[in-house]
Amino acid sequence: MADTADTRTPAQIEADISRRRAVLAETLDEIGVRVHPKTIVGDTKARVASNVDHTLGRAYVGVNRVVSDVKAQFVDVNGSPRLERVVPAAVLVVGVVGLLALGSRRRGR
Question: What is this structure's pTM?
Fold first, then answer.
């Protein structure tokens, strides 16, 4: 059986206890700050804001990609309009607007 006798002096034991109390008090203070309602609310707000920023950033990139793809359909690499695609699209838009106008006129009578 191993010898478990403590060879420290009473002053050393008191100093060790004092040191451990200080560490324990510091740990309890840290726990108190972490579980304080204001800290929890602040952490939650920061996490939500970060998630919103991340989601908005991803949405912006996605929309930007779609806009670039659509623009590429109607504009060539030099920036000139592709008339073979612009004219049919314009005719289609005018036709849809005309049909909507006719439909609203008939309902108005």
Answer: 0.47
